[in-house]
Structures are given as C-alpha cells and as structure tokens.
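[recover] target loaded
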C-alpha cells in the first residue's frame, strides 16, 4: 500500500496538488502579516503540507481526537472559522472544487477529485481540525 500511496501522491503533486498547496501557503503568509493571524497561518502551513501529499492523511476534529476542548474547538474556534471563511476559506474551497471538477472528467482522476473535495470541506472550517495519518 505504501508504494501505491507514493505513486498517487506524486501524480497528485504534478497534476495540481502543487498549485493548491502553494495557495494554502500564500494564505498562511498573508495571515502572518498580523499578530492576530498567526494561529491561522500555522494552520495554513499544516494543511498546505497535507495538500501537497494528501494520500495517507486525513483530518479530524481535535476534540474528538484528544477528548477535551481547547481554544480552537470552543467558541473562539467558531468565531475564528467564521472570520476564516469570509477572508480565505471560500476562495480556497472554490479552488479545490474547480480542481475536483477538472479531475472528475476522467475516470483516472476520480480519486484526485475526491481528495480535492475533502480539502474543500477542510478549507471552509480549518480551525479546531488536525491532520492525522491514516492507518
């Protein structure tokens, strides 16, 4: 399975994952301009890395993983997700959905389109989420 995952990740990177990963990192750099945006920027770089190599990784709610609430999974996280959605989330989601539609044109592109849709959902509300490796 590791070889297949590597092949899919390399194909993903060459066929569009690089572009969306850079979009996440650009959003992260823009967030780092203000002190308030640093937590958003950190999340952008983590998710951007996942966007470069998505096969074998998934995202989940941090509260479900740890069993306890933190600042990102509580009321501040909800407020942060609303601000994120308005500034960056909608645009990253549109980029992922556009790439997904292009991937769904061919049968071979369907797994790539599914990954783009997974990342589009994550791009709408990334605060309080964490990236985990699939078993």
């Amino acid at each position: 399975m590791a070889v297949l995952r590597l092949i899919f990740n390399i194909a993903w990177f060459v066929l569009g994952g690089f572009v969306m990963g850079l979009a996440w990192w650009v959003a992260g750099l823009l967030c780092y301009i203000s002190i308030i945006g640093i937590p958003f920027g950190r999340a952008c770089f983590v998710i951007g890395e996942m966007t470069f190599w998505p096969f074998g990784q998934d995202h989940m709610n941090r509260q479900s993983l740890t069993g306890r609430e933190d600042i990102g999974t509580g009321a501040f996280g909800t407020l942060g997700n609303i601000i994120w959605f308005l500034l960056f989330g909608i645009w990253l989601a549109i980029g992922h959905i556009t790439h997904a539609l292009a991937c769904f044109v061919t049968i071979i592109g369907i797994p790539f389109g599914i990954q783009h849709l997974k990342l589009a959902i994550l791009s709408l509300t990334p605060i309080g989420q964490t990236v985990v490796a699939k078993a």
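[recover] notes: The longest strand covers residues 57-61.
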